[in-house]
Amino acid sequence: MTRPMVVRDPALPEAVTIYEVGPRDGLQNESVVVPLDVKVELVERLIAAGLPIVEATSFVHPRWVPQLADAAELVARLPMTGPVPLPVLVPNERGLDRALAAGVGHVAIFTSATETFARKNLASSLDGQLRMVEPVVERARAAGVDVRAYVSMCFGDPWEGAVPIDQVVALGRRLLDLGASQLSIGDTIGVGTPAHVQALVAAFGAAGTGPERLAMHFHDTYGQALANAYAALQVGITTFDASAGGLGGCPYAESATGNLATEDLVWMLEGLGVRHGVDLEKLVATSVWMSTILKKEPASAVVRALA
User: Fold this and answer.
1) Choosing from 18, 147, 250, 290, which is the catalytic residue?
2) Does residue 7 form part of some domain?
C-alpha cells in the first residue's frame, strides 16, 4: 500500500490519540438502520486496526436516533472491559442509568455553545443544559466512570452565525469545573478555519485550560477539516475525533456533513512523522467494507485513492 514520505516537524507533538467516533457519530446520521451484527463487526475491526478509543454508541431515546436503538444489545456483545475504551454517549440521567447497568466505564455528554442549538437539540437553554448534565457527571464520577464533554457549534451556528470565542471558553470551563476530564471542541457545521482554531486554543490557554484537556472534532463541510487539524497540532492539541471513511454528520443540523475522515488524518500524521498507532491498511479495508454495506462511496479521499 502506498505511504506518504515522512518529513518530521520537530515543533509538532510526537504522538496523538485518535478518538474514533464512526460507530456512534457516523452511523447516527445514516438514513438506513445498520444491522446489529454489522455494528459489532465494525467496532471489532476498528479495534483490530489499532484505534486506541472507539466510541461505540449512544444511549439516547430511540425516538430521537432510531439508528442507535440497539445500544444495549451492542454493548452486551462488545469487550467493554478490554484494553480499548469503548465510550458511549449519554444525553441525560436516564441514558446514564442504562449505561451503568450495561457496565460501561466511559461516557460522554453533549452540550451546545449556542442558545439556539441548545434549544433545538436539547430542549434547554445554555444554562439549563448545564443543570441537566451536572447530575450525570456527578453520578458517573461517583461510580468511577470517566466523563468526556462534547461542546457543539464552537465555530459557527446555522441560526446564530459566528460564535464568540469567549462564549465557547466560558461554557467549556464550566464543564471542566463540573468534572469532565476532557472537552471535545466541535465544529459542527464545518465553518472553522486554521487561525480561528488556534485563536480558540489560545483563549482556552489564557483561561487556564491547556491543550492537554482539549480534543478537536472537525467536520469537512467546507473542506477545512484536515487543515484545521494541522493548525491544532501546531498549538499542541494531541487528541482528535475522527470517523472511519468520513462517515457522519449531525441529525439536528442539516448543514453538517461528514466528520474528519480517520484515514485522511492518519495519512497526514504519517507524513509528519507523528505517531498514531493505527494500521492504515486495515482501516481502509474496514471503510471499504462499510461502504459496500451502506451502498455509498466513502467520503475519505485517502480511502478512495488507496482502494
Assistant:
1) 250
2) no
